[in-house]
Specification:
CATH topology of the largest domain: Aldehyde Dehydrogenase, Chain A, domain 1
Radius of gyration: 23 Å
CATH superfamily of the largest domain: Aldehyde Dehydrogenase, Chain A, domain 1
Strand content: 15-25%
Number of domains: 2
Largest sheet: 7 strands, mixed
Bound molecules: nicotinamide-adenine-dinucleotide
Strand order of the largest sheet: 15-16-17-14-13-18-19
CATH architecture of the largest domain: 3-Layer(aba) Sandwich
Length: 473
């Protein structure tokens, strides 16, 4: 049993003022594996106050000093990679390969930010003016449970690279990962108050951070509904916001695609992170004249997917993070059936042979139309919709007919044609014939998938404001 009874404020581990305890579960067994004492609104205020005290000195540190800090943070998180991996598997249920990627991603984002800062000009000229890219102030960083360590490190890396100080409220469901990351960052020997981490409920800690007048910037990753609340709350003090929200990403399979190669990638894009990924390709657009052929290959591919013990290397799909999430996914599978979509794989209930754990049957519907609930709403589980189209124009129009616009995928043997289609899709990232990640490229959403961008230069600039000085040159 893990007991987590400390938060991190002003360079020290302290007992929270909040007194509520929250149970942590292993989603693969449904057993309680620990307890965390939650921070409350006062703890969040203390975190902001510490960040505010630290800001004047930190914002004036040199670029060199900040690069060195990021490198120390990177080394400290690398040193905890195995521990972090264990926590990700235990409290989140990520299968082996995904869990390892997530554990490494947490340190990679720190070294990437150091690299970007090396090349970044904080002072430039515009006509007769000197333009200084100045840190915004205290930044509030709010992270979800589905890749908590990576989000804490990624947002923190960009904020510190820019010279901001931070108050961080991670999801209460990922307290094990948060504790390991916090210990690692503590060992990186940063000035007190530069980062403060208070795990608590969003409605108290997160809400405090998004309304507090001393917070200049919010960087939030989570659901679109909470993102809108944060935007409204932050409006009173005109906070700058970066919102990384939900998705309903289209996967456009063009009519010349080689299904043998493409279907494994399509299924992988849909079921990534056990379906609990904002970028999952959940609407699969397939040429109607090749639908039967595509469905046959999907059935074979899904039959090869394995749900179960995350520690078994053969497992490709882990459990849903919580009972609530499991019930939500079940509800959507029921809605798909009621709306007349045709199940070609999976369905309601648990996968055969699994009586415990919040496992969902990997599920694919066909005969889905783009107006059905399962094609419009983010399910956040391994539930995919195949939508048939008649020609490429219609495919593009269906792909763009969504409130979201985070990521899209295009598959074709003709790269130039795929490129053309990709250029017409309304999404922050479009992956053509690949599932690869590019840390230097911007990441973020069009429409209700968010505001602003993370990663690379774009991520750091989200924490900077240009200031023009005239008459100084
Ligand atoms: P969530 O919105 O419920 O919670 C996210 C975070 O916000 C948590 O830390 C929570 O405690 C906090 N929060 C809740 N209410 C708040 C409030 N009123 N004020 C401030 N903070 C509050 O999301 P979740 O269920 O943890 O994560 C899943 C969602 O995140 C999905 O919709 C997914 O698409 C999205 N997501 C987006 C990205 C992206 O980069 N675009 C990445 C991962 C997840």
């Amino acid at each position: 049993m893990h007991t987590i009874d400390q938060i991190y404020i002003d360079g020290a581990f302290v007992t929270p003022h909040g007194e509520e305890w929250f149970d942590l579960f292993n989603p693969a067994t449904e057993r309680v594996i620990g307890r965390v004492r939650l921070a409350d609104a006062k703890d969040a205020r203390d975190a902001i106050a510490a960040a505010k005290r630290a800001f004047p000195a930190f914002s004036r540190t040199s670029k060199r000093a900040r690069i060195d800090m990021l490198k120390r943070m990177h080394a400290a998180v690398v040193a905890k990679e195995d521990e972090l991996y264990e926590a990700i598997v235990e409290e989140y249920g990520a299968p082996v390969s995904r869990g390892r990627w997530m554990a490494q991603h947490a340190s990679n984002v720190l070294s990437e930010a150091a690299k970007v800062l090396e090349q970044y000009e904080l002072t430039r000229h515009a006509g007769t003016a000197e333009v200084v890219m100045q840190p915004l102030g205290v930044a509030g960083l709010i992270t979800p449970w589905n890749s908590n360590a990576g989000f804490i490190c990624g947002k923190l890396a960009a904020a510190l690279a820019a010279g901001c100080t931070t108050g961080i409220t991670p999801s209460e469901m990922s307290a094990l990962q948060t504790q390991i990351v916090t210990r690692a960052l503590h060992e990186a020997d940063l000035p007190p108050g530069v980062f403060n981490i208070v795990t608590g409920r969003g409605e108290s800690g997160g809400a405090q951070i998004s309304s507090h007048p001393d917070v200049a910037k919010i960087s939030f990753t989570g659901s679109t509904a909470v993102g809108k609340t944060i935007l409204r709350t932050g409006a009173d003090t005109l906070k700058r916001v970066t919102l990384e929200l939900g998705g309903k990403s289209p996967t456009v399979v063009l009519d010349d695609a080689d299904f043998e190669q493409v279907v494994p990638l399509v299924i992988n894009a849909g079921f990534m992170n056990s379906g609990q990924a904002c970028i999952a390709g959940t609407r699969i657009l397939v040429p109607r004249r090749r639908l039967a052929e595509f469905e046959a290959r999907v059935r074979d591919e899904v039959a090869r997917a394995r749900s179960g013990d995350p520690r078994d290397p053969a497992t490709t799909i882990g459990p849903m993070v919580s009972q609530k999430q499991w019930e939500r996914v079940q509800r959507y599978i029921g809605i798909g059936i009621d709306e007349g979509a045709r199940l070609i794989a999976g369905g309601e209930g648990r996968p055969a042979g699994l009586d415990a754990g919040w496992f969902v049957r990997p599920t694919v519907f066909s005969d889905v139309t783009n107006d059905m609930t399962i094609a419009r709403e983010e399910i956040f589980g391994p539930v995919l919709s195949i939508i048939a189209y008649d020609d490429t124009e219609q495919a593009i129009s269906i792909a763009n007919d969504t409130n979201y616009g985070l990521q899209a995928y295009v598959f074709s043997q003709d790269k130039a044609r795929a490129h053309q289609v990709a250029s017409r899709l309304e999404a922050g990232r479009v992956l053509v014939n690949t599932l690869a990640h590019e840390p230097a490229a911007p990441f973020g959403g069009f429409k209700q998938s968010g505001i602003g961008r993370e990663y690379g230069v774009y991520g750091i600039e989200a924490f900077l404001e240009p200031k023009a000085l005239l008459g100084v040159l």
